[in-house]
Amino acid sequence: VKEFLVNIGKDCDDPLSPEYRKVFARGCCVDFSPSVINQYLDRDVEEVAELEATDDEICRTITGNLVKKWPRKDKLSYTKLTAKYALLNKIAVINWVPTTH
């Protein structure tokens, strides 16, 4: 499969949702996660302890405690990032986002 289309529900980021890490393909609901992809590609998956950090903790870290809660409806403004994370964001945008120039 080179391409597929999915419908993403409002609760797609909620681990308590029954549709968490699932996609609908041709009317069937299938598990879809990094571990499923690695298993399909026959990659060795070492057991690694899950890092537990909430979105709010990440938000406080990358903004230097300027923003306390991760915005649910709006986007996190680039101007709120610390210098370190603003620079990392800029590197990511330049290298990973496809452009025509």
- Distance linking N and C termini: 29 Å
The arrangement of helices and strands along the chain is: EEHHH
Please state the overall shape, judged from the principal axes of the Cα atoms: extended
- Which percent range describes the beta-strand content? 5-15%
> Would you identify the regions where 5 or more consecutive residues have pLDDT less than 50?
none
Domain Putative plant transposon protein: 1-101
Organism: Trifolium medium
Protein name: Envelope-like protein
Account of the protein in words:
The chain is α+β, with helices and mostly antiparallel strands. The protein has helices at residues 34-40, 55-62, 83-96, and strands spanning 22-25, 28-31. It has a two-stranded antiparallel sheet. The model has no long low-confidence stretch (mean pLDDT 82).
